[in-house]
């Protein structure tokens, strides 16, 4: 009888010890998961802040670009019309960036090569005086875009 009682007592002691160990392991795992969750949340918040700053910087650059563009007066009506339309295109691009409309920005970026072709074609038809103005004007736009 003593052996049976001692055997049962030792089994109960081992069961109690292993349950306690399991509970401690479970508690540590839960704490580690909570800490990882908190760190992931902090990282996400930091990424959101950095993304917002990048968007604000892009918006400010576009605003500076548009406000820095002064369209010269060309003797050619065709050149004047194209310069005015291109300035409007740049303003529209700035508004799209400012509004955060990715679709609109993508759409306007797709038109960039068309604008380059139109501008190169028009530049070939200019008088020497207009060609100088055109060159200086497009150079200024390029410099503002590069900033």
UniProtKB/TrEMBL annotation:
Keywords: Coiled coil, Signal. Residues 1-23 form the signal peptide. Residues 19-68 form a coiled coil. It comes from the Bacteria. This is Lipoprotein.
